[in-house]
C-alpha cells in the first residue's frame, strides 16, 4: 500500500511550550499542535497566570504521545508554579508490601490500618500526595468504595487532608486534630465536684400552668 493509500495519517508535530515571567520564573508547561492558539485559549479562560507571561520557549516533537511524555517529565522535574497535573510530591508506594484484603472482614478498617502504618512509620511523609482510590483498591484487593471509606476515616482522624483539584495528601502534624479523649486527673490533683443544677422546665405560651394577667 502506498503512503497515499495508508489508512492512518502520520502523527502531527506537537510543541512542548514553557511560559516564563519577567524574572525568568517558570509559570506553566503544556503541549499543543498550535501553541499560538493555545496561548489565546489560556487568555480566553482567564487563567490568572497569563498576565504574568513575558516569554515563551517551544520544543517540537514528531508526535503528541512523545510530547505528552516529555511534558510529564518536565513538570515533575522543573516544577512550574501553575501546573496541577504531574506537579505533586507523591508518596513512595510499594503495593507488594500490602497483603490482599479480599477475603478479610472489616476491609475498610484494615485498609485504613495499612495506610496509617505507612504514615506512622514515615514511609509516607507530610505534604505528599497519596495514591488515588482506584490504586489503593487494586493494591489491597478491595473496591473503590472501600478505599473511599478508609481514607474518609483517616481524614476524620486528621492523618489525611484533601485539596480540591489535587487529591489526598498526608497531613502535616501541626494541622492534625487533637485527640478528643480527656486524660484522667493526675495523682495529687484536686477535682472540684460539679454542683448539681436545678431542673429547669421550658415554658411555652400555651403552657396551662402559666398565669395570664
From TrEMBL:
One Pfam family recorded for the sequence: GntR
UniProt signal peptide: none
Organism ancestry: Bacteria, Bacillati, Actinomycetota, Actinomycetes, Kitasatosporales
SUPFAM superfamilies xref list: GIY-YIG endonuclease, Winged helix' DNA-binding domain
Protein name, entry field: GntR family transcriptional regulator
Annotated GO MF terms: DNA binding; DNA-binding transcription factor activity
SMART domains the record matches: GIYc (SM00465), HTH_GNTR (SM00345)
UniProt domain HTH gntR-type: residue ranges: 105-173
The keyword Iron is annotated on this UniProt entry: no
Keywords: DNA-binding, Transcription, Transcription regulation
Domain GIY-YIG, residue spans: 12-84
Amino acid at each position: 500500500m502506498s503512503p497515499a493509500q495508508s489508512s492512518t495519517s502520520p502523527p502531527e508535530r506537537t510543541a512542548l511550550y514553557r511560559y516564563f515571567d519577567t524574572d525568568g520564573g517558570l509559570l506553566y508547561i503544556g503541549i499543543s499542535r498550535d501553541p499560538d492558539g493555545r496561548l489565546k485559549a489560556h487568555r480566553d479562560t482567564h487563567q490568572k497566570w497569563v498576565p504574568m507571561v513575558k516569554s515563551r520557549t517551544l520544543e517540537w516533537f514528531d508526535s503528541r504521545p512523545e510530547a505528552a511524555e516529555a511534558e510529564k517529565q518536565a513538570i515533575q522535574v522543573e516544577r512550574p508554579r501553575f501546573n496541577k497535573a504531574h506537579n505533586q510530591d507523591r508518596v513512595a508506594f510499594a503495593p507488594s508490601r500490602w497483603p490482599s484484603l479480599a477475603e478479610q472482614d472489616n476491609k475498610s478498617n484494615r485498609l485504613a490500618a495499612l495506610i496509617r502504618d505507612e504514615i506512622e512509620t514515615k514511609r509516607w511523609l507530610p505534604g505528599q500526595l497519596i495514591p488515588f482510590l482506584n490504586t489503593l483498591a487494586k493494591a489491597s484487593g478491595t473496591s473503590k468504595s472501600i478505599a473511599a471509606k478508609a481514607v474518609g476515616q483517616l481524614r476524620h482522624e486528621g492523618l489525611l487532608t484533601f485539596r480540591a483539584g489535587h487529591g489526598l495528601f498526608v497531613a502535616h502534624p501541626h494541622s492534625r486534630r487533637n485527640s478528643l479523649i480527656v486524660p484522667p486527673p493526675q495523682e495529687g490533683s484536686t477535682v472540684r465536684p460539679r454542683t448539681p443544677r436545678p431542673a429547669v422546665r421550658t415554658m411555652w405560651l400555651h403552657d396551662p400552668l402559666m398565669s395570664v394577667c
